[in-house]
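Need a sequence for this fold. Nothing fancy.
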């Protein structure tokens, strides 16, 4: 299997690094440069205003000579690392202090103090007097409320770019360190996500190939660990289901083959004269008995299939559960008389209506009473009791028969299961009766429990909702 997911994350990691460098080199540099331009222009304008207000007006009042002004501007040139021009209001140069390799004109062509606008500064070569872009600020020099001239300061943009490059060095270093540290996340993804996913993918492949014994190692308690444990549980359930299906097929085949073999043997014996005509009636009754077993088995299998395919639709109605118990108990009068078994009913004095599927609940009562009679000794009794608690009705069916051992009590709900003690007493049973009972009760969102003492008694109790 190709490690496509791993490769995708590596590619994304590289793309992420490239985008970080690109964004830093463009956006961050632009933002820093813009900030430095504004800070520089504000500083230059503040200094220009201070000089224009405090030093230069004395020139127009003849208190300072042009040489004194020039000396002041030269000092500020060194301090600000900029060219300073002192001009008349018409642009005629009075004096200047220029940076190396720059000169000042005798007069500024097309001089216009308003060209700077409201931004307080402008960027460019300023009427093509410079070979590089400059930040230019201008402050008026006033005397007696009249503008006499202007102080113009030009600072090279290259100085700002140089400062920006200096500031970007630690930014790039920090970015490189962050990018290297982020490699830890890539390693974490490899060890904590990618490798477990490979194991899960391999498990899914093994399950698809039918190898349900494959187990994913689970050594973590996060979502991937939970997924691995769930897949292991699914595989176990599928394997159990597969084994269960094989067991069902084997049991069904056995339960069909046994009566069919008997029927075929008896029919062939009667046909070839091995069984004399005077015994035909006896063996025809045996064949009829085996046929009834096959009919019961087929009916039970169809009933369980309704639950397995989720096609069971309950027709819930309100009916008197105690009347149903009476009628169901009466249907066993014949077999009870033969075994001298009495059915004692402990019912409530008032009418008790429940909301359930009448036919299905009758089948539950029939199966439980049929089991109780099968496994009860002769000259014993069976009790059926109805009790109520809150909005629930509880029905108990108790016999005094062979009981159920503790190790087998949880297996009685399994399909085709017959305990060792019951095999000798239940010749006709299919082993599906209690499975059907539990499915019906659960379909009603109710519960059924069993209490048994081996060799003493067995009691089944199920609940129903009041109407």
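Here you go.
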């Amino acid at each position: 299997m190709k490690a496509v997911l791993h490769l995708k994350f590596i590619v994304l990691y590289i793309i992420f690094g490239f985008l970080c460098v690109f964004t830093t080199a463009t956006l961050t540099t632009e933002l820093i440069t813009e900030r430095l331009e504004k800070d520089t222009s504000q500083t230059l304008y503040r200094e220009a205003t201070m000089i224009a207000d405090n030093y230069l007006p004395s020139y127009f009042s003849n208190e300072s000579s042009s040489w004194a002004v020039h000396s002041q501007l030269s000092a500020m040139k060194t301090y600000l690392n900029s060219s300073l021009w002192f001009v008349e209001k018409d642009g005629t140069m009075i004096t200047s202090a220029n940076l190396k390799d720059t000169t000042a004109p005798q007069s500024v062509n097309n001089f216009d103090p308003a060209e700077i606008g409201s931004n307080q500064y402008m960027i460019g070569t300023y009427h093509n007097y410079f070979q590089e872009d400059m930040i230019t600020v201008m402050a008026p020099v006033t005397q007696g409320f009249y503008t006499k001239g202007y102080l113009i300061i030009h600072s090279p943009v290259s100085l700002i770019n140089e400062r920006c490059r200096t500031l970007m060095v630690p930014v790039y270093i920090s970015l490189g360190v962050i990018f290297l540290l982020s490699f830890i996340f890539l390693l974490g993804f490899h060890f904590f996500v990618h490798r477990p996913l490979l194991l899960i993918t391999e498990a899914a492949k093994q399950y698809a190939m039918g190898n349900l014994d494959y187990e994913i190692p689970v050594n973590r308690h996060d979502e991937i660990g939970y997924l691995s444990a769930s897949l292991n549980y699914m595989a176990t359930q599928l394997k159990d289901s597969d084994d269960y299906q094989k067991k069902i097929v084997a049991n069904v085949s056995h339960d069909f083959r046994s009566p069919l073999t008997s029927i075929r043997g008896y029919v062939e014996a009667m046909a070839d004269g091995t069984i004399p005509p005077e015994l035909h009636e006896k063996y025809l009754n045996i064949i009829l008995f085996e046929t009834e077993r096959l009919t019961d088995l087929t009916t039970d299998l169809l009933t369980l299939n309704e639950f397995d395919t989720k096609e069971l639709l309950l027709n819930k109605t309100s009916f008197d559960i105690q009347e149903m118990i009476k009628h169901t108990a009466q249907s066993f009068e014949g077999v009870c008389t033969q075994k001298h078994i009495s059915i004692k009913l402990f019912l409530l004095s008032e009418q008790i209506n429940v909301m359930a599927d009448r036919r299905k609940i009758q089948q539950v009562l029939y199966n439980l009473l049929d089991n109780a009679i099968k496994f009860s000794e002769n000259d014993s009794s069976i009790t059926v009791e109805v009790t109520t608690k809150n909005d629930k009705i509880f029905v108990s069916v108790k016999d005094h028969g062979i009981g159920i051992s503790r190790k087998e009590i949880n297996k009685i709900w399994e399909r085709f299961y017959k305990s060792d003690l019951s095999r000798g007493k239940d010749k006709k049973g299919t082993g599906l009766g209690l499975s059907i009972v539990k499915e019906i009760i659960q379909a009603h969102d109710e519960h059924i429990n069993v209490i048994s003492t081996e060799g003493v008694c067995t009691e089944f109790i199920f609940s129903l909702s009041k109407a």
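For context: The first strand starts at residue 83 and ends at 88.
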